[in-house]
Sequence to fold (1666 residues):
Amino acid sequence: MRRWFDDLPKYADDSSWWPNGTTRCRPEVFLFWLGLPLTIMAYFGLSAFLVLFKGLNQTNMNDYFAFGVWIVVDLAVIALGAGAFFTSFLNYIIGKTELKPIVNAAVLIGFICYTGAILMLGIDIGQPIRGWFGFWHANVHSMLTEVMFCITTYAIVLCIELLPSVLDNRRIGKVPEFGTFSHNLHTIMIVFAAAGTFLSFFHQGSLGGMFGVLYARPFAYRGHLGIWPMTFFLFVMSAIAAGPSFTTMVVMITEKITGKRLTSHKVKMLMGKISGWLLLVYMVCKSVDTLYWAFIYLPSKGLSVGQMYQAPYGSWLVWAELGLFGWLPAILLLTPRVRESYGLLFLAMLLNCIGVTLNRFIFTIQSLALPVMPFEKFFSYLPTWQEWGVASLVLGHGLLIFMLAYRYLPIFPQEPELNQR
Amino acid sequence: MATHQQGKKQRSRADWLLLVVGLILGSAFGFWITPTILYAEKPQPLQFNHKLHMEQVDNGCKSCHKFREDGSFSGIPGIKSCKNCHSGDEPLGNTPAEKEFMKFLKADKPIPWQVYARQADNVFFSHAAHAENAGLECTRCHGKHGESDKLRPYEYNRLTGYSRDIWGRGPIGLAGPPDRMKMDDCAKCHRDNGVNQACFVCHK
Amino acid sequence: MDWDRRTFVKFAVGAVLGVHASPLIPKFMDDTAIWTQNWNWVPVPEDGAVAYAKTVNPHTGTGAMAKLIDGRVEGLRAIRVEGNPDHPLSRGGVVPADASALQLLYNNETRVAKPLLRNRATGVMTQITWPQALDLVGGNLAELAQKGQAHQAAALGTDPSSTTGQMLMRLMQALGSPNVAFTPTPRETMALAGLFMTGQPFLGFDLANANFIVSFGTPLLEGFGAPVAVRKAFAGWRGYPKNQAYLVQIEPRASVTASQADQWIACKPGSEGAVALAMCRIMIEEGVYDRAVESAYGWNDVDGMMGFKSYLMKSIDRAKVASLAGVSLPKLVKMTLAFAKADRAVAVCGPGNSGDPGRLYDFMSVLALNALKGNLGKPGGVVAQQPLPLKSLGGALPEPKQPPLAGSDRPFSVNNVHDLAEAALAGKPYGLKTLILCGGNFVFNGPQANLMHDLARKTPFVVAITPYMDESAAMADLVLPSTHWLEGWGDSTTSFGSPVACYGLHRPLVKAVAEAKDAGDTLLALAQRLGGPAAAALPYKNLAEALAKRSQAMGDFKKLAETSYWAQKRPAYGQMRFNTPSGRLELFSRTLRQLVSKGAGGGQDLDKAVRALGVKGGAQAAFLPHWEEPAAYAEGAAYPLIMQAAPSLRTTWGDEAITPYMVKILPDTVLANADKLVVEMNPATARDLHLYAGDMVLVESSAGSLTAKLTLYAGAAPGMVFVPLGLGHQAFGFQVAKKGMNFNRAVKVTSDPMSGMPIWELTGVSVKKVRG
Amino acid sequence: MVIDVDKCTGCGACSVACMSENNVGVLEDETEKIRSITWLRVYQIDNGKAFPETEVAFFPRPCMHCQGGASGSPGQAFFQEDTDPQEAHTPCVSVCPAIATDYDDATGIVSQITSRCIGCRYCVAACPYHARYFNWYDVPWPQGTPRGLSPFVSPRMRGVVEKCTFCYPRLQRAKNKAFLGGGKVGEMDYQTACTEACPSGAITFGQLQNPAHKVHKLIQSEFAFRLLEKMGTNPKVYYMSKRKWVRMMADNHLSQAKATQAAASGGHK
Fold:
């Protein structure tokens, strides 16, 4: 007698959807692991519901910390997602085709980061249903408007860039129209890569500009080059320095989890080298900027560097950001022997990514923590569980999308070749 | 590929016709839904004959829609204002609307008029600035309301709750006053006449 | 033509284009944009004709102007309370209590709308009608009167000089009860000091015209008399590039007054009077006093008793006083000389920081200092107010047969709620059966709140006449709703310290809540219900009529009501009239001596009698301005610290409750962590006690306690703890209730020597850390 | 606006008058000062000295209605002088993505239109005076209290930013009256609620640039100063005090940097 569940394995057999020449874990194992992102998403869902329904009083943000962990995470993931545009730029426009094996992964990670960031921003504002006023009644002078426009359009560009990978799925690709469409898309991808580069350059910069223009906030304010404050350029630089590292890191983590080789080490080393050089340039600029800020700008406002760093946001932050997570990874990444080692390369990239995250944290939280009026009190801020819940969205939906994409989409063109038995 | 192209050629004319049909239907649907579904009617508590009253008074609209001493505008007059003329216990005329009105008068109860030109709460509109300082006629924004012999039904937007007069009765809604009284119209007139357009000129 | 996918796509594209060609999309976008701006639960206040009506806030004495709006649908309502620029004293200014008065007026959750009867066992309140309510009170009182127990009914009010207060007195007296008592205020202390020394009960300080002001521990800028009037004077003292007047504040804490003063002399708590006397002696020694004072009665020794000068020379050594008060002697001398030299200098006494009525001998000392300065009756000095031209509500009534509960053991007494409560609770000479609380929220305001709480709990029948469901109403058996001052009639008389007499009248400006009645009208209705002598004593239709009768001399009542005030044009400058037995200024008070000697003989007896009245200095000092150590010093080692209030106009001053807006603007050095009262201590004192900022502490006196969070303030005198006033309500809605603790619950009230007035300026306390 | 710190007694009448004028609500817990909406907040400062030298003073702080762009303004930095007028503008206005706030050149007042505001709080971050407040909560209006609300100021909803408007609706009504009477809005016709309420007359309000107005003369005084002048925000609220320590407290000074740093770290054990 056949039992009702005997057929289940047949239905659950999704091997025909797997990318060509690859193997994936059994469906039940996959389903089991899907539980992890789904749990995170449930946590996110509960937090988001509370925040949307009861209001932002569910957070620990306040009139002094107008921005909190959400903006930090937003800025960080957008910086880390910069791998997408910069790798595409190098691959499609500069013609660094060596990077081809990792472009898809970069775009996917970018897509995850950007969609996550947009969703979080939607929850972060006090009037989510009016969020679109930024477009409807846009103020062209605001850096935030620029960010909103660029992020949204770039997210659309990312969707388009990601589309070929989806269409190249073994089953979907069999539909003739989709196949043709995908092919056509590939040929014009350079246009989107260019558009993406342009948009990204501006919003990465504008995110930095957001802080650099706050001229009444001495911690954040920076001098201008043209109409852009220095932070504009620093943010672009730090993002493109960290983006490739993050992309490569995610690939490396995936390799470790799946036990497969997904890209050749050469590609990773190249990514590391690119990261390293960019980071070096960034660190030089950032150091000059910091010195200028600390010894010329601040004193002109009657402030000293010492005042800028007060417990719990002490001066250890500078040393951490510039030294341990700045110069150190730059030097490491530029050392060929480090790049050759899988572990050390990973470590250097990790430091790099932590560095950029720390930078975003400092600009968001510490800029606000510093009281400008001498008689104001100094406050510190700790997020609530609801804030962590919403912030974990990127992790949850990132994992989910990445797991699905890895299982079904040909993200890693080198995979079949590298894993031949 | 070849068959596809062939098929396309064969059917192209009829197909394009359908596109036009779709266009017309879609557009008709849009034009139908915008006023019909979007707006609902509320009855006025009483009928009111502006024309008749205008014949009785000597200062036009301002006889009842007065400026107060502090420069503010009274808007729809309260029942106290009505008593200036309707002072006795007996109706002055013999319309059914007035009989209905006498009930409010006797009970000294405010008449719950639906206000056609009611703006959002955050709007500060200065009648003094427009009617006195700029010398605009009431009709510039309110049209020929003062010449009507009965109150038209009050229509309001189901989504926003505001009177239909704000967005205007024209199908496209681009007419400008007196058909429409949206912020864009205010801004346009201010722009055209070189009047300050800062937010706080008209918002509170 | 086949209806296949491609045709459908074309049709769909056409339809989509068609929809876009219609206004649907932009219209829908636009409407959505508008919809997102509508939050239906946000109130939309109705517009209407604006009108202003002048009135006077009886609780603060501020000349106010209610901004009224007459809406077409919602009718007349008040939307703001502003200052009345025409009012001669407050000239348009307000204090927070005025500006937020509407929050007490319009709050259905805290107002009493209908008479309520409370079941003592269950605490459940039920609505009853006014006739039922009046029957209940009337029946109760009538029964007592019938049984000859009328004296066992007592009534407490806030202001004996108001018309409602007068009515309360007449009603009780007509009923046969001697027990009417009022909130003790510095007006009484000042009246006594004035009577004893000058024969004038209504003395004021001409602050606006003074150019050198020495304030003895009285919070000039945190609540003194009519707070706005004082501030107006203060504003005149300031200027650029130099101040117009020199202000010296003598008190233990770096208060607002102390900080805004040109000089702050930090003294030990309770030593202010001694400093005043030291200044007198310095002036005499330096020869910089007005020689006219030498002709005062008691300048020299009289009848073999010490005169003022001898007393100073014998007991007030400048160095000793300086060290006792903890002030620098050279500074004190320098300041005194400047005071003596200034052309319009005045020394000011008044309520203490804790809001108590002040110590009689301190007031007398300050008056003596002013006399030495020679500023009595002069511009910028001490002036006598013209008595308000108010008529009596009726002829004299027979004195009740029973002695009053409080003060019968004193040669003169001011009937005050505290003494009455103490005596009634002790049952000496008898207990109470019925208690009428006419406003005042005594269960909260005390002065010793625990005591008033016990009184309300132990008295079998308690009636509260109040606009609010306050702490007193919550304990009453019967709650009778009265009007808020913006919706009812009432009056107020000259504030403490004012140089001119000023009468305030408030009238109904908006419709009263449901069935609320003016407190006066309730008393009249009660009198009618009782009939007989009560009705005869109060033959008025309503409060307005009584007010009209009383204020007859101030001109047309209707006009007066619209003007809202009557004020003496200018201070009475010129030689002050001394209505004393000697016809002169009396530095040795003959009046006082006569009053005391009435009960006792001379010599030994007198000394004994005086000591029985609490005067430690004995008969030699009792009739002179002199200084005695505050009782709080004698609390012993168990209560090593001294507690004083830190007053602020952001909390309250007087009997009205704190408002939500006032709670909102409290800094976190007053109220913190949602509901924690914050008390202040000097960092050095805290160190000695091993306490840190942020600790929860128990402040305990022999009369009660409170728990609070500790804050360290360098401006607080060592050895003291400073507590904010007016917090810790259990009533008045979620915006006010359960925030902080009531200062009056930790206060220990003592009797002022001689006058017997309750005083609570300083309380001996212990402070220890508790968990919390 | 000119505020005389030497006259201010910190009573809070201005703050309360402001709230009642502008329909500000009261939450159950208002001790959380960093979320408590007080358009005009009265800051207490002290001279930091020990007993008995301690002295306190008050800085009532409305919105400064910064104009920006004056001397000492942003672009003195690094590469070039900032020429973009938008950059040299009110700190909060230029950052708003939805034009919910603007700077009126005619009056110099910085507006805030709450129904346009999307609640991104970028302006809150931009303001060094903490004059901008976000509605973290729905305002609870206990039953009956809306009767006391003013129709001249629209009550706000949750999730938007609000701030002091220099009682702009009062100017609107003053203008109304002037239009009808044919006159002009005089100095005393337009006064803010806080100015009127202040019992010691510490606040003076008028047009800074109008020589006939009192404020014009007051700001010429050597005792007049502004908060954070070095930041280049160019605020329209001036303060006055004869006391040097009060004037020093209004801005950051390198000489004091060490002391405040020590105090701050001391206060955060």
